[in-house]
Amino acid sequence: MKKLTNPVTEIDGKVKKLIDDMFESMYNADGIGLAANQVGESLSIITIDTAPAQKENEKKNPPIALINPILEEVSENESDYQEGCLSVPDLHEKVIRPVSIQVRYYNENAKEKVLNTDGILARVIQHEIDHLSGILFYERLTPIRRTLVKNKLKNIQKGKIIPAYPMILPDGTRIEGKVKE
Ligand code: ZN
């Protein structure tokens, strides 16, 4: 069953602690983005740090937490990029998405912000906002690609592929992950 998220109604110490914990989980799992419902909290919060996925000579986007993010605009221009997901271990597929976006959100200091961005940051924001409404990246593949990845997905859902980090799987099961040696 898909787990949907509720908007944050007050940005208090609990929310800030959750954001800190989310960054920690994300870095532990070598992820570049995380949605709160991936770690069992059904709140509309995402954390992102795209730096590890950026080119060496590129200016690094700072880590960012978005509370109650809303995609206000997306470009007609689209691109593809090989995406992966901490909730779908071992699956990497090219996903087509708009290149640039406008997103409205609150930061951890309860300030309302509007961000216009493109490239990797726009991509990760879209992937994570999808999570908040229960959409996983493989649902955005073309039907033919989806059929091809079906068996792999079955193995992931059966728990045959276990990630190296604790995570909530798409069906809501919590897994502890392999212990790092
Ligand atoms: Zn994901």
Q: What does this protein look like?
A:
With 181 residues, the chain is α+β, with helices and mostly antiparallel strands. Helix content is 25%, strand content 27%. The chain is built from three helices and nine strands. A five-stranded antiparallel β-sheet has the order 1-2-3-6-7. A hairpin with a 5-residue loop joins β6 and β7. The site of zinc ion (ZN) has 5 residues, from α2. Zinc ion (ZN) binds next to α2.
In terms of topology, how is this protein built?
Layout: H1 13-28, E1 33-35, E2 45-48, E3 64-74, E4 78-83, E5 93-98, E6 100-106, E7 112-118, H2 119-132, H3 143-157, E8 167-168, E9 174-175
Antiparallel strand pairs: 1-2, 2-3, 3-6, 4-5, 6-7, 8-9
The structure holds zinc ion.
Zinc ion is lined by residues 85-87, 127, 131.
What attributes characterize this protein structure?
single chain, five-stranded antiparallel β-sheet, two-stranded antiparallel ribbon, 25% helix, 27% strand
Approximately what portion of the residues adopt beta-strand conformation?
A: 25-35%
> Which cofactor or ligand species appear?
zinc ion
- Report helical residue fraction: 10-25%
Low-pLDDT ranges: none
Helix-strand topology string: HEEEEEEEHHEE
Mean pLDDT, nearest integer? Answer: 89
Number of alpha- plus pi-helical segments: 3
Shape: globular
Total count of strands: 9
Structural class category: alpha+beta
The main sheet orders its strands as: 1-2-3-6-7
Q: What Rg, in angstroms, do the CA atoms define?
A: 16 Å
Distance between the termini: 33 Å
Q: Please describe the biggest sheet, giving its number of strands, its sense, and whether it closes into a barrel.
A: 5 strands, antiparallel
